[in-house]
Amino acid sequence: MAGPLLQLSDVHASYGPVHALRGVNVTVNEGEIVTLIGANGAGKSTLLMTICGNPKPAQGQILFQDKSLVGMPPHLIARQGIAQVPEGRRIFPRMTVLENLQLGATLADPAHFAEDLAICYGLFPILEKRQAQRAGTLSGGEQQMLAISRALMSRPRMLLLDEPSLGLAPLIIRQIFQVIEQLNRERGMTILLVEQNAYHALKLAHRAYVLASGEVVLTGSGRELLANEQVRAAYLEGGAH
Amino acid sequence: MGFTLAVGTFLQHLINGLTLGAIYGLIAIGYTMVYGIIRMINFAHGEIYMIGAFIAVTTFTLLLGAGVTSVPLALVIVLAISCTFTAAYGWTIERVAYRPLRTAPKLAPFISAIGMSILLQNFVMLTQGARSKSLPPVMTGGVTLWHDGDFSLGLTNIQMFIILLTVALMAGFTLVINRTALGRAQRACEQDRTMAALLGINVDRTISLTFVLGAGLAAVAGVMVTLYYGVIDFYIGFLAGMKAFTAAVLGGIGSLPGAMLGGLLIGLIEAFFSGYVSSAYKDVAAFSILILVLVVRPSGLLGRPDIEKV
Ligand SMILES: Nc1ncnc2c1ncn2[C@@H]1O[C@H](COP(=O)(O)OP(=O)(O)OP(=O)(O)O)[C@@H](O)[C@H]1O
Ligand SMILES: [Mg+2]
User: Which of B26, B37, B51, B278 is deepest in the core (most CB within 10 A)?
Assistant: First the structure.
């Protein structure tokens, strides 16, 4: 495995008076799946959004491929090769599935479009059946598949996923985790994954961080955190799901 | 005889109404597109139309002075110059008056918009004079569709030009919004600006382009009105702007087909009301219909109920 692709050092971020990140240090190496777990309001989504430039970090350094992202507007950060599947999916509800995917390909070379579309439809065949349908009429699981596919359409160097399993049925969750694992294994995609579904996410992860009140309180390999007593008590209540 | 005359009169009002409706519709598109993307009414938009008309008069006068006699050539030049300059105005207005206030409470850009409108009116009044400007008829002639005794039903070349150009522009614009990458980016910014930026869309540039396109269409309307009436003054933007705004709200603010339909309806209402009831109260008629429609259907004729109201 190569050196760090993404490196956050002492990153602070606020929403007005709310100090959501308080000096976070997180590193993601090329080809890794790194999982971020933490309670509600710990600052997980804020961390992913801060990487993407919204909100802008109030302090600290964010390096992606040794280039500073601090102060860069979100659309230029996307151009560096970072794609996010945000919390709540945020598909464009009044556009068709295909249009959502076309928007995902905004930064991609148009010559790749057909190939990339075929890859997404290969991962999630249901999307091809739904391609002319308004995205707002898709089921929750289908919307999540669309959000992931939309992110992939830009051929990112790195994928940020914010709770992709939220609100989905167990069967769909398994499918989504399979795809995440497959993207990493077959395509070498670097992934930063935020999850409440800690058991699955930690099993999948090379390394993981636990975030609490805007700070990293624990870090280690996915396996180490799975075995950790505190983690088990706080995030894996009832053992393996 | 009485019956055919009645039909003829009706058709004449219809033609006049369509012409007016085309002009209102073109202006209304600018209101609706800007509202769609930044949820704000650009009250200076009527002034953009007025400036388009002034540039048209000036350019026509210069061209006539320079001995350009070909009407199509003159029209193309005037449209190009008017659209270019007003596009620059549209772009600048957004940069100066709205962008700095994008995250401010809603009242701030609202007041800024009204200030910008007054500023532009006064700017034109000071530089062009407060008196009306007129243009000798550039486009004359027309066809008589039907006549019977004293009555004749006519369609002037100007009316034909206005209606055909409007249909072409609206079709082209609809195509751009629905089928091109620019249109997709525009709609994405309307639905979720934060997400659009995460996908690499330059939101600021998309908003600027929306103002530029809206201003361009308003400029075309300004050129049309110059040809149609031949007389303009620095104040024409106010009433036309109010009516086009009414048209946009009537059709459902934020909706592109709604703006076109609303413009058409306002034009028709105005023409028929002037023809059959009273031309002095034609403006009251248009605004009354608006109030009625909004009581029954607050989101406008083609608007989505989920879009927030002004
Ligand atoms: N747009 C915002 N404006 C103001 N405060 C915000 C905003 N977004 C998040 N916050 C606050 O920042 C803190 C961190 O929120 P964040 O959404 O990052 O948590 P999270 O770890 O993703 O939680 P969850 O697991 O519930 O998604 C919370 O206190 C939240 O209330
Ligand atoms: Mg969150």
Answer: B26
Ligand 2 centroid vs B34 CA: distance in angstroms? Answer: 31
Q: Whose CA is nearest to atom 9 of ligand 1?
A: A46
Cα A238 to Cα A64: distance, rounded to the nearest angstrom: 38
Question: Domain tally for chain B?
Answer: 1
CATH of the domain at B57: 1.10.3470
Q: State the Cα–Cα distance between residues A73 and B70, nearest whole angstrom.
A: 50
Written in H, E and C, the secondary structure of A104-120 is HCCCCCHHHHHHHHHHH
pTM of the model: 0.92
Terminal Cα-to-Cα distance of chain B (whole angstroms): 50
The residues spanned by each domain of chain A are 1-81+158-241, 90-156
Per-residue pLDDT of chain B (310 residues; tens, 9 = 90+): 577 788 888 999 999 999 999 999 999 999 999 999 999 999 999 999 999 999 999 999 999 999 888 989 999 999 999 999 999 999 999 999 999 998 899 899 999 999 999 999 999 999 999 899 999 888 888 888 888 777 888 899 999 999 999 999 999 999 999 999 999 999 999 999 999 999 999 999 999 999 999 999 999 999 999 999 999 999 999 999 999 999 999 999 999 999 999 999 999 999 999 999 988 888 888 888 888 888 988 888 898 765 443 3
Q: Which two tokens mark B284?
A: 């009251």
Give, for ligand 1, the residue of A12, A14, A18 to mutate: max count of ligand atoms closer than 8 Å to Cβ.
Answer: A18
Q: Which CATH number does A1-81+158-241 carry?
A: 3.40.50.300
Cβ-defined contact of B200 to A79 (cutoff 8 Å): yes
ipTM over 0.90: yes
CA of B198 to the centre of ligand 1 (A): 18
Q: Which residues of A touch B102 (CB under 8 A)?
A: none
Q: How far is the CA of A163 from the centre of ligand 1 (A)?
A: 13
Host domain of residue B123: 2-144+154-296
Taking the C-alpha atoms of residue B51 and residue B90, their distance in angstroms, rounded to an integer, is 11
Interface size A-B, in CB pairs within 8 Å, comes to 60
